[in-house]
Design a protein that fits this description.
about 425 residues, mainly alpha, Citrate Synthase, domain 1, 2 domains, about 60% helix, binds coenzyme A
Length: about 425
Amino acid sequence: MAKAAKVKGNKRMAAKKAAPKKSIKKTVKKAAKKTANKVTSKKPTPGKVTVKASDIRRGLVGVIADTTAVSKVVPETNSLTYRGYAVQELADHCTFEEVTYLLLDGELPNRSQLNAFKKKERSLRKLSKNHVDVIAKFPKRAHPMDTIRTAVSYLGTTEVAWGGEPWEADHERAVNLLAKIPTMIATDFRFRNGKRRIPPRTDLSMAENFFYMCFGKVPPKKIVKAFDTSLILYAEHSFNASTFTSRMITSTRSDIYSAVAGGIGALKGPLHGGANEAVMEMMEEIRTPKRAEPWIRDAIANKKLIMGFGHRVYKHGDSRVPTMKICLEHLTEWSGDTKWLEIYNILADIFINEKGIYPNLDFPSGPAYYLMGFPVNLYTPIFVMARIAGWSAHILEQNAANVLIRPLSAYDGKAQRKVKPVAKRK
Ligand SMILES: CC(C)(COP(=O)(O)OP(=O)(O)OC[C@H]1O[C@@H](n2cnc3c(N)ncnc32)[C@H](O)[C@@H]1OP(=O)(O)O)[C@@H](O)C(=O)NCCC(=O)NCCS
């Protein structure tokens, strides 16, 4: 009975987040009750669930699906390491390029390896004329996550690729994607605003070049460093939804472009990467620090989902937040626009105090990107340009020791029945 109640509780929670409308919530609740009864049913009939409720892990909560050497998340100590290095230390001492090399190749590069990697990445930034033409044709009202997903797919049509090819072939493709994705995002950004595209430069870092391709200029070093730090923090996070999607697609021996396009699709959702945009939309709705306290108290009273808070793995704070919060403070000081940091502090203090739920990385990233001058719908595409490093590392790892990912399900639909010819159906 207790187990059944737990299943029901999980379903209720999922319904609350995914379907805020009351009627849908009720339907899901009813379905959850039905399933809960079925899983504890002693006399199974054909088509009914015969597994124990404890066998079902909705949302794969707590399931360890495989091993990985790419990164390690330890929620108990709020720590995150990439290939054994603490992410905070990497943010302090390395550039995004060095971290990408680390994720893809397993070790931090020495000076000559880094120079060769940078040279290669810079040489691959330019898009073909056909690729630019495809981007120019995207509907201007499309979300940039949909256009970047399609632009990546286009790249996948320029060659025939499969999973299980030599590591070097996919490594090459990963660096090509890493180099071209920022150009795709910036080109689309310029076109949708009725502006001419700004081709990439080869004398700038990835962070500098992205600012340049979007705005035609590079901001002061401190701002570039804040952006670069955000890319490092967003680069990798073990078996999150988009990475797992990429690994799952790879596990079928499909190609890296399909795996990355799938990852982008998963990242778009506001429960995952889309949260950084949702955070800023929420802050823009709050508008002033004065309105922040009544807003959050009302949201808590009405059990609203507060974007940028909570995490499937971290339950006592996200290891990446303190580093990104410092970047937000630097940006606030630089811009003189203090209201977003003030709103941040009010929301975080009250929500932690009242609910014990902590901000995740998207909470400081949203206002940080705002202060850097990026439009809100570019925040999740920026996440893509960082996470391509992690996705690629996982795709290479999955390919190297592949096993098809294919979980089971507990059926709770109709019992088996006979097909009636169409004339006999009511
Ligand atoms: C990230 C997220 C999907 C994790 O979900 P999860 O692992 O299923 O969450 P939990 O099971 O730990 O949630 C426990 C409780 O906290 C609540 N909760 C979690 N995050 C919350 C939030 N941001 N706002 C309000 N309540 C929240 C849940 O509703 C649940 O309440 P209940 O037990 O009364 O139903 C969830 O926290 C969320 O939707 N956050 C907002 C979106 C976001 O910022 N996403 C980016 C993640 S990096």
